Amino acid sequence: MPFTLHGLAVSQGIAIGHVHLVSHALLEVNHYQLAPRHLEAEMARLDDAVAEVRGELQELRSASEHNPAYNEVGAFVDVHLMFLDDPMLTDAARTLIDARRCNAEWALVQQMELLVEQFDQIEDAYLRERKADVIQVVERLVKVLLGQPGHLPRKRKDSPGTIVVAHDLSPADTLGFRDHDIAGFVTDVGGPTSHTAIVARSQGIPAVVALHNVRQLVHDNELMIIDGTRGVVIIDPDERILEEYRLRKTELELERSKLHRLTSARATTLDGEEVSLLANIELPRDGVQARKVHADGVGLFRTEFLFLNRHALPDEDEQFEAYRAALKHMGGAPVTIRTLDVGADKALEAVGKRSTEANPALGLRAIRYSLTEPKMFRTQLRALLRASHYGPLKILLPMLAHAHEMDQSLAMIAQAKEQLRERKQKFDPKVEVGGMIEVPAAALSLGMFVRRLQFLSIGTNDLIQYTLAIDRTDEAVAHLYDPLHPAVLKLIGGTIQVGARYGLPVSVCGEMAGDPAFTRLFLGMGLRRFSMQPTQLLGVKQEVLRADVGDLAPKVQRILKMDEQERVHEAVERLGV
Ligand code: PEP
Ligand code: MG
Q1: Which of 11, 88, 279, 311 would staple 295 via disulfide (CB 3.0–4.6 Å)?
Q2: Are residues 522 and 513 in contact, defined by beta-carbon separation less than 8 angstroms?
Q3: Distance of CA 281 from the midpoint of ligand 1 (Å)
């Protein structure tokens, strides 16, 4: 019987495929008592699981030897193999099974918790961090014991695709979908501008989040349709529904191919205003997509994705190569690279930083984090500066609110330059440094930014989060996430105005920039630089080509004076007709 669920639409398009349930294995472990005669079989179950996980890890190891993109994998696989054979883990679990007559998965989790406690006491930071490895090894073992496949299916040309169904996914998990046959994903939790959603959009993978308990309602291999535009998920559809969605999917593909005709057109409004359409990228190779849609450059390279999903931080040379590769992919167009923005929904595994703060979005995030890790920050700055020798690179600092954050960062850039001079390594001494405006405090005190920086970029995702006091990853408050709230528009409009007054380039690089519903509004505010996922660029270009700034500007000025949300929404909608 088909049934339908409604959630939040976070990445457009239609996906049709078979369900692949991804579980929180450790949360699902039950405790049960065994009869003495079953203990031997339980030990054998554990041994089989250990053997299977060993096989998986060895397979991963040999795959990593042939794929330079996974060169970090080899190192963590070795650590995992070591823990797998460590008597403190598996032997201790066997002793527990015997002594307490309990099931293997429960014994493993008990022993893991004991080890994690011991790791927490260790003074040496590196060793302390290894507790994450113990957790991951136990997670793998438990998944095998519970009969839940740990791996996503590899890419296959002829398959209808897989739909990942999970309680939650990290942005790093979503990034890993690139190498797999993933048609779409749905999750129980999540918000529209969480980084997981952003990565989904960047890859053009349809996604619906905030479905609450979808994992309990579906089974592995069941057929599912995701309508990522309407936020609808249909499980076990009948032939009639399938036919309807296949048709809609074809229509969408047709629309997309029509947009492709605009690829080489210049983004100029009807009254001749030139607009710069830039790309947001997460990895250097995303530059290929950006070039395909003729982006004028990269407006935001979120470098944290080089740091996620791995067990050791990338060193200076690796980062330098990545930044230089992004420049190369962009073939001489400017590339704005943001320094590390970790924390909140992007936890840094490599330093064992699991978010334990009550309010991670208000905690040690982005520039705040980098300034507490000067060695790591300087390494990144040196890598950026070295890459600046190979093309027009700009440095962007995230989540600024205080003058001293800018002063400290600029001093560290000066120190990094000095270190490179001593090493006789080349860099562009005039490399531009800009700042993200994503905290209301910044948008309301622009003078101090204008005096210190060379360009500004408005991060609407965080600006909305911090202005309206709603966690962008929390679906319970997602209905309050209103990009058109008068307060938000006043902060954006004010920043664009101040930039124009002082001759400081301002761009918008949050998700609003890629939504064609807001293109006219921004143009009327005076914005001429938009940065977005490459998949959104042609849709925005179409709007630019149809817009007349002379006509829009006075209308938008009136909108900026409104203080009723509903009136703003209606007025913005009217701009499009
Ligand atoms: C933003 O906050 O709008 C932004 C572009 O940064 P991120 O989404 O990476 O936080
Ligand atoms: Mg941000």
Answers
A1: 279
A2: yes
A3: 12
The answer to whether the CB of 280 is under 6 A from ligand 1 is no
Q: Which CATH superfamily is domain 272-575 in?
A: Phosphoenolpyruvate-binding domains (3.20.20.60)
Is 510 touching ligand 1 by the criterion CB < 6 Å? yes
pLDDT score of 308? 79
Cβ atoms of residues 92 and 46 within 8 Å = no
Q: Is 282 in the pocket of ligand 1 (CB under 6 A)?
A: no
**Tokens standing for residue 399:** 């989540």
What count of Cα atoms within 13 Å lies in the side-chain half-sphere of residue 285?
6
What is the number of the ligand 1 atom nearest to the C-alpha of 193? 8
Radius of gyration from C-alpha coordinates of the chain: 25
Rounded distance between C-alpha atoms, residue 176 and residue 59, angstroms: 17
Q: Is the CB of 302 under 6 A from ligand 1?
A: yes
User: Which atom of ligand 1 has the smallest separation from the CA of 195?
Assistant: 8
Locate the ligand 1 atom nearest the alpha carbon of residue 438 and give its number. Answer: 2
- CATH of 25-146, picked from 1.10.274.10, 3.30.950.10, 3.30.420.40, 1.10.10.10, is 1.10.274.10
Beta-bridge partners for 433: 395
Q: What angle do CA 526, 529, 532 make, to 5 degrees?
A: 125
* Per-residue pLDDT, 48: 94
DSSP class of 25: G
Alpha-carbon span 161 to 18, nearest angstrom? 7
The pLDDT score that the predictor gives to residue 354 is: 47
Atom of ligand 1 nearest to the CA of 462: 2
Separation of alpha carbons 326 and 306, rounded Å: 12
Q: Do domains 3-20+151-241 and 25-146 have the same CATH topology?
A: no
Structure tokens at 286: 């995303």
Write out residues in the chain with pLDDT < 70, as ranges.
Answer: 23-28, 63-64, 66-76, 125-126, 128-129, 132, 148-160, 170-173, 176, 178-179, 309, 311, 347, 349-357
What span, in angstroms and rounded, lies between the C-alpha atoms of 362 and 471?
Answer: 10
**Would you say the CB of residue 459 lies under 6 angstroms from ligand 1?**
yes
Q: 476 CA to middle of ligand 2, Å?
A: 20
Specify the length of the chain in residues: 577
Catalytic sites, residue numbers:
195, 509
**371 CA to centre of ligand 2 in angstroms:** 17
In angstroms, what is the span from residue 331 Cα to ligand 1's centroid? Answer: 25
* Inter-axis angle of helices 534-546 and 239-259, nearest 10: 60
If phi > 0 it is left, if psi is from -120 to 50 it is alpha, else beta; for residue 9 that is: beta
Residue with tokens 């999903």: 309
* Helix/strand/coil percentages in the chain, nearest 5: 55, 15, 30
Alpha helices in 389-505 (DSSP H): 403-423, 440-443, 446-452, 460-468, 486-502
In sign, the C-alpha dihedral spanning 517, 520, 524, 525 is positive
The residues spanned by each domain of the chain are 3-20+151-241, 25-146, 272-575
Query: What pLDDT is recorded for position 309?
Result: 66
Mutate to test the pocket of ligand 1, among 174, 304, 436, 491 (most ligand atoms within 8 A of CB): 436
338 close to ligand 1 (CB < 6 Angstrom):
no
